[in-house]
Amino acid sequence: MFEINKQQFGTFLAEQRKKQGFTQKELAAKLFVSDKAVSKWERGGSLPDITLLVPLSEQLQVSVAELLESRNMPATEQLNPQQAETLLKKALTLSDEVPRVQRNTRMRRGLIFFLCVLTAALELLFARHLHYDLSSLFVYELLSIFIGAWFYLLAREALPSWYDEHAVSFYSDGILNLSIPGVTFNNRNWQHILRAGRLWNAIILIAFPAIGMLETALFDRCLSLPNLLVYFAMLFLPLMIAGKKHP
C-alpha cells in the first residue's frame, strides 16, 4: 500500500524529463549520478535515493509529492493528513530500497572480482605445470587483488558534496590514497573513474599471467622492466582518461 510503483514512477519520470527537454545523460549530470542510474529508474528497475527527491523535483519542475504519487497534481489539490502520512511512508520506502539495491550490486561485483581472481590463479597454476617461472609477476597480481578489492567491494559510490564545491585532486579512503595527475575528483567523474578502475583491474588480473607465459615462451623469461611499465600504464591511464573526459 505504501510502496512506490516502480513502473509508474519510471514512466512519470521519463515524461517529465522529456517535457523539460533533458536527455538521460543531461539529467544524470545535474544530479551527479550516472545516466545508467536514470535509465534504470525510468525502466522501473530501481528507485532513486531519498536524498535525490528534492533536486530531482527541482530539475523536473514538479513537487516531491507529485514524484511520489507519480502524477501531476492540480495546484488547488490539498493533501489531507492521511494522504500526507501515506506520502511520508512512501518516501521512507526509498530508504529501504537503496541499501537493498546497493547490496545486490555489490554482491554481483564481488562475484565478478572473485571470478577474475580465480581465473588468474588457474593461469598461474597452469604456468607452473608448464614449468614457467612467473614469480616476478606475483607482486603485480597481489597488488591487483588488493586494488581490485577496493574498487569492487569497498569504494564509495558517491563523494561528499565538498568535492563538487572545490577542486580536489587527492582522494583518501582508509589506507588507500588516490591522486591522478591533471584530474580533480567530483561526482561528475567519480562513477566513470570507478568503472575504469574495475574494468582495467580485471583485465590486468587475467592478462598478466598470459603475458608472462608468452614472454617465457618467446624469451625464456619474464621481461621485468616492460612489465612494470605496462602494468602502471594499464592501471593509471584509464583512470586519467576517465577523469579528464568527464571533468
Can you describe this structure?
The protein is an all-alpha fold. It folds into two domains: 73 residues, 434 Repressor (Amino-terminal Domain) (Orthogonal Bundle), CATH 1.10.260; 140 residues, no CATH class. Helix content is 67%, strand content 2%. The chain is built from ten helices and two strands. Strands 1-2 form a two-stranded antiparallel ribbon. A hairpin with a 2-residue loop joins strand 1 and strand 2. Helix 7 packs antiparallel against helix 9 and helix 9 runs antiparallel to helix 10. It is elongated. The mean pLDDT is 84.
**Portion in strands:** under 5%
Q: Output the helix-strand order.
A: HHHHHHHHEEHH
- Order of strands, main sheet, comes to 1-2
Number of helices: 10
Provide the residue-averaged pLDDT. 84
Number of domains: 2
Q: Helix amount, in percent?
A: 55-70%
> What's the Cα radius of gyration?
23 Å
Query: How many angstroms does the end-to-end distance come to?
Result: 42 Å
Observed structural traits:
elongated, two-stranded antiparallel ribbon, 2 domains, 434 Repressor (Amino-terminal Domain), 247 residues
